Each structure stands twice: as structure tokens, then as C-alpha cells.
């Protein structure tokens, strides 16, 4: 496009355009934007738009390289006056769309035109939250069912997904807006997932049937409300329709909203569902598991405690799933999870057999032998009187041998790393303990040998100096922490449980880090104490010594980041010895 013409369109200079009005239909930018596109993008001037269309009406429906009309661009920019002017012109003087085969373009045709992404002007206005433009576009075409774009999004779905409540409310004034979105979801799915109470209620009130429509995962909006603990919305829905609480997700093990709220620890939602649907606790999922199976499998202790307080607890705790497992069997195959106190009650069948002829204790022992369980539920089960089943000793032993053989390579590698790490820790701790022990009796400045004052004889000369006191305290800290680390390694060698061993090593690592820092402080303060007469040298020595702390922090930070990212299995194994305590608290 000629630069003078382009600037004239951008700046709203009618005279420049009028001088080249014969060229308006052929002058385009690299993206095939006409002067009308340019004016719609940069100016919110309705009279200027009318002037351009007065000179060249065919520009109304001309599209650029992305299939966009000037209305698309004006809607995206939020230029309400331009949007109104374009629609009014199309309504008053319909034009022929030569590019589409001489089709007559009126205001409805213009509003419904789509670009190469399948977006109408309304999609663009919604996407950029231009409520005033949305109001104009919807009021001019109230009875049109809005279409999905190429991403399967309707304007209403876009607004709900972005929590644009005013826009949602405006689109709902249309007689039949499109509710659908990608992955089989509706606008109500989107509003619930975005946890917007206002949008969710408005959408439900307009079309209640949405609450029962399932997406490709077979989850309804009510399932998502249970997932995200939307207590207020769940209450709002159940007051109108309790049937939704019994809907199952066919493609997700036939879970109900109660199972989902249990799995994700949504206690308030769970209570509300049980209040409105008191018999819903009886429902099981596709694997035959009740809500207590789910709670134990998800390690939701608060949920387990709540269930244990209900009169139907005993009916659930001894109920078997499709594999014959009770909730106690599920617990036995878990890790890092203490036996809930409610499962120690005498009504609980602690020696129930599943379809593999295994009791909960059998499962716990088997998993522990196989290396899949890093906790010790077997010990906790034994403490409440659980016993092995002994029903399939031979076949079970064969399976154990096969699984142990498969996992032996990886286990031996990990155990070797543990031993190497422990040896390194012991050497470091022993060196620090030796050095700090010696420093405690060879204090800087020496001892007072003055025989005149018996109270001071044999005491450190620099006893009253603040730096010396800091030296003594830090030396003590380093000595005690290093010896405690050595003791922890000694205790760890008595355990057979891997988690306990790793925990002791982790705590020892933490103590060694403290002792290393305290040793550096002791060195700095001790050196400063004897160099006080030369203050410059003493200051330089302190500064050099203190520089080690930022270095330690930087190295530890990189180590921690490497562990969290889990770049390789080897890094995870080695770094976990230092940080595993945090994972087992």
C-alpha cells in the first residue's frame, strides 16, 4: 500500500483517501489489509468509516490474508463505534461480496462471517473482553446460534473459560447461544473448572441440562465441582437436582462426584452430597471400590476420620472390591502412611482374604519384600494383631523370587550409593570433630600464665573479647553437630528398613552442614581475635572467610534445584540422601 494512503487511513485523513478513491479497492498491505481494515485497527471513528464505504462499498466484506473483515479487526480492538458503523452500513445498503460469488451481504451475513480460524467478530470481542462490542454484536443478531471456531470454541465458552462474567451474562440474552467447547465440554464445564460461582449459576439457570452433559473423560460439570471443592455451587445444584450426585463417569472407573470429592480431599463437598443424598455412600466405582477404599488409596486422613465417625463406617471398612480387597488391603500396599486409628477397632476384619488369597499383612509383607513399599505397614498391622494367611505359600514365593530378581539390579545400585554416601559423611564428620576438638584446647592467644592472680591462671588470655566468645560457641556447635552426625550413622547401621536408614543419613547430612558452617565461623573469629592489632589484615581475613557462605548457598541451591527437576535417575538417588528428610516429614 502507498505509504501516504496508509498514513491517511491510519490518521483519519479523508482528503488523502478521497484523492486516491479510485485506488482504494486495489491498494492493500502485505497482509492484504485494505484502507478500511487499517482505519478499523487504529481509529474508533464511525464517520470516517462511513466516508470510506461511501467511496468504495465493496470494502465492507473484503478480507485480508487471514480471512478477516474490518469488523473482525474493529471487534478485536474494542472499537465500538466502528463496529456499529459497519453493521449499520450493511443493514442500510447491502453490498455484493464478489469474492464469495456475488452474495448479498447484510448485517447478519457480516456478523456471522468467519476468518481462517473459524472466528466470528464476536469471538474476537469476547477473547479480548470488550463487553461493549459484545453487547452491540449480540443485540444485532439475537436469534443466531453461535458457531464453534476451528478450536471448537463458541463465544460463550470462551467467555466462561476466561471468567468474563459480564460477557457471559450478555451472551446469555441471546435466544440460543452455543454452549459447546473443546473435548466435549460445555460452557458450564469451563466456568466450574475456572471456579467462577457467578458464571456457573448463570449458565445453569439458562440451561440446566448442561449439568448432566459429560466431556470426553465422562466428567460432568458436577464432577468438576466436586474435584475443585466448589461447596457453594454444589449446594446450589443439589437444592435443585439431587440426581446429579448419582451420575457416574463411565470412562473413569464409573466414579461418582462423591468418589471424586473423596479422592481429592474435598471434605465440604463430600459432607453436602451426603447431607442431600444420604444413601450415596453405598455406591461403588467401576473397580467395586467404595469411598473408604478411595480415601485410603488417596491417603486422605481427614476424609478417613470423617467416614469413621459415620454409622455406616463398618459396612465400608469390611467391604471388598472387585479384586476382593478391603480398604485395609489398600492400606497395606501403600507407603508413607500410618495405619488410621479407626482401622484398629475390633469390628474391622484385619485378616480378610482377597481373591489372591492374601490378607492385608500378606500384602504388606509381599510389597515390602518386592521393594515396592518404602514404608512399614507390616509392622503396624502386626501391632493390631494381623496375621499372615498362609493359603498360597508356594505360588506366592515363586512370584516373590521373580520380582526380587527383576528389581535386584536397581536395588543393589541404590544400596551401593547409600553406602558410599554414608562413608563420605562419616569421613567428613570425623575430620570436623577432630579439628574442632583440638581447637577447643589450643585456643587462639594461648592461656594466662600469671601466677599473681590465681583466679585467672590457666584461663584463655582473650576470654573477655567478643570475637573469642563467638569462636568458642561456634567451635562447640561444630563439635557437637559432627559427633551427633557420627552417632546417627552408627544408629542407622542397626536398621534394616531403607526409609529409616535414609532418614538418619539425611538428618546426619543436615548436622554436617551446620558443623561445616560453624567451623568456618570459628576459624574466622579465631583468626580475627589474634589479628586485632592489625585491623586491616583482620578485616581482610574476615571478608575472605565470609565469601564462602554465598558460595555454599549457591552450590546447595543448585543441588536442590537439580533434585527437584529430577534430571536423571542418578542425580535423584544421590541428592535424595540430602533432602529425603523433607519428603518423609
Anisotropy-based shape = flat
Widest sheet: strand ordering = 1-2
Mean pLDDT value = 82
Class by alpha and beta content: mainly alpha
What share of the residues lie within helices?
55-70%
Distance between the termini: 68 Å
Low-confidence parts? 401-411, 567-585
The DSSP helix count reads 29
The value of Rg in angstroms is: 37 Å
How many strand units?
2
What does this molecule look like?
The chain crosses the membrane at residues 426-447, 467-492, 504-524, 530-555. Its main location: membrane. ANK repeats lie at residues 66-98. This protein is mainly alpha-helical. Among the domains are: 1-141, Serine Threonine Protein Phosphatase 5, Tetratricopeptide repeat; 409-449 and 456-583. Helix content is 58%, strand content 1%. The chain has helices spanning 3-11, 14-19, 35-42, 46-55, 70-77, 80-92, 107-112, 121-127, 131-139, 155-161, 165-171, 187-193, 197-206, 221-227, 231-238, 257-263, 267-276, 291-297, 301-308, 313-317, 327-332, 360-370, 377-383, 393-441, 466-492, 498-530, 535-546, 548-565, 569-583; strands spanning 95-97, 103-105. Strands 1-2 form a two-stranded antiparallel sheet. Strand 1 (95-97) and strand 2 form a beta hairpin. Helix 3 packs parallel to helix 5 (70-77) and helix 4 packs parallel to helix 6 (80-92). The longest helix is centred in the last third of the chain and has 49 residues, at 393-441. The radius of gyration is 37 Å and the shape is flat. The protein starts with a helix and ends with a helix. Residues 401-411 and 567-585 have low confidence and may be disordered.
Amino acid at each position: 500500500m502507498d505509504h501516504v494512503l496508509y498514513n491517511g487511513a491510519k490518521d483519519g485523513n479523508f482528503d488523502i483517501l478521497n484523492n486516491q478513491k479510485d485506488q482504494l479497492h486495489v491498494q492493500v498491505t502485505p497482509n492484504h489489509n485494505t484502507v478500511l481494515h487499517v482505519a478499523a485497527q487504529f481509529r474508533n471513528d464511525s464517520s470516517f468509516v462511513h466516508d470510506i464505504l461511501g467511496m468504495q462499498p465493496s470494502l465492507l466484506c473484503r478480507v485480508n490474508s487471514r480471512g478477516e473483515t474490518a469488523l473482525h479487526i474493529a471487534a478485536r480492538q474494542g472499537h465500538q463505534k466502528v463496529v456499529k458503523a459497519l453493521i449499520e452500513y450493511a443493514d442500510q445498503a447491502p453490498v455484493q461480496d464478489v469474492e464469495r460469488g456475488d452474495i448479498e451481504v447484510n448485517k447478519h451475513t457480516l456478523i456471522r462471517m468467519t476468518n481462517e480460524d473459524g472466528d466470528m467478530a464476536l469471538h474476537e470481542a469476547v477473547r479480548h473482553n470488550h463487553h461493549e462490542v459484545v453487547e452491540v454484536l449480540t443485540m444485532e443478531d439475537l436469534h443466531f446460534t453461535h458457531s464453534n471456531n476451528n478450536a471448537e470454541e463458541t463465544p460463550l465458552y470462551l467467555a466462561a473459560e476466561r471468567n468474563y462474567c459480564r460477557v457471559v451474562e450478555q451472551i446469555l440474552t441471546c435466544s440460543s447461544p452455543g454452549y459447546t467447547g473443546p473435548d466435549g465440554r460445555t460452557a458450564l464445564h469451563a466456568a466450574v473448572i475456572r471456579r467462577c460461582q457467578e458464571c456457573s449459576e448463570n449458565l445453569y439457570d439458562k440451561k440446566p441440562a448442561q449439568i448432566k452433559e459429560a466431556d470426553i473423560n465422562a466428567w460432568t460439570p458436577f464432577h468438576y465441582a466436586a474435584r475443585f471443592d466448589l461447596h457453594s455451587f454444589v449446594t446450589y445444584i443439589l437444592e435443585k437436582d439431587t440426581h446429579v450426585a448419582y451420575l457416574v463417569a463411565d470412562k473413569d472407573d464409573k466414579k461418582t462426584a462423591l468418589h471424586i470429592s473423596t479422592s481429592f480431599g474435598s471434605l465440604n463437598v463430600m459432607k453436602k452430597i451426603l447431607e442431600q443424598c444420604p444413601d450415596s455412600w453405598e455406591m461403588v466405582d467401576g473397580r467395586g471400590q467404595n469411598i473408604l477404599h478411595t480415601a485410603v488409596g488417596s491417603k486422605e486422613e481427614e476424609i478417613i476420620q470423617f467416614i469413621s465417625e459415620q454409622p455406616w463406617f463398618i459396612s465400608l471398612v469390611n467391604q471388598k472390591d472387585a479384586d476382593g480387597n478391603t480398604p485395609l488391603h489398600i492400606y497395606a500396599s501403600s507407603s508413607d502412611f500410618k495405619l488410621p486409628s479407626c482401622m484398629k477397632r475390633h469390628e474391622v476384619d484385619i485378616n480378610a482374604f482377597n481373591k489372591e488369597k492374601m490378607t492385608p499383612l500378606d500384602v504388606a509383607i509381599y510389597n515390602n519384600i518386592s521393594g515396592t513399599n518404602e514404608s512399614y505397614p507390616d509392622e503396624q498391622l502386626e501391632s493390631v494383631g494381623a496375621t499372615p494367611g498362609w493359603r498360597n505359600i508356594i505360588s506366592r514365593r515363586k512370584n516373590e523370587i521373580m520380582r526380587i530378581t527383576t528389581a535386584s539390579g536397581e536395588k543393589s545400585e541404590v544400596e551401593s550409593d547409600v553406602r558410599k554416601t554414608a562413608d563420605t559423611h562419616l569421613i567428613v564428620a570425623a575430620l570436623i570433630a577432630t579439628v574442632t576438638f583440638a581447637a577447643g584446647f589450643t585456643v587462639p592467644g594461648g592461656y594466662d600464665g600469671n601466677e599473681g592472680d590465681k583466679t585467672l591462671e590457666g584461663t584463655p588470655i582473650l576470654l573477655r573479647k567478643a570475637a573469642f566468645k563467638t569462636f568458642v560457641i561456634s567451635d562447640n556447635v561444630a563439635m557437637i553437630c559432627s559427633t551427633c552426625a557420627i552417632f546417627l550413622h552408627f544408629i542407622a547401621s542397626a536398621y534394616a528398613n531403607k526409609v529409616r536408614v535414609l532418614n538418619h543419613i539425611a538428618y546426619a547430612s543436615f548436622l554436617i552442614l551446620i558443623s561445616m558452617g560453624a567451623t568456618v565461623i570459628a576459624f574466622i573469629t579465631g583468626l580475627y581475635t589474634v589479628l586485632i592489632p592489625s585491623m586491616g589484615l583482620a578485616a581482610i581475613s574476615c571478608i575472605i572467610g565470609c565469601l564462602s557462605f554465598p558460595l555454599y548457598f549457591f552450590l546447595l541451591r543448585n543441588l536442590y534445584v537439580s533434585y527437584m527437576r529430577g534430571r536423571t535417575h542418578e542425580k535423584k538417588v544421590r541428592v535424595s540422601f540430602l533432602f529425603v528428610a523433607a519428603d518423609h516429614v
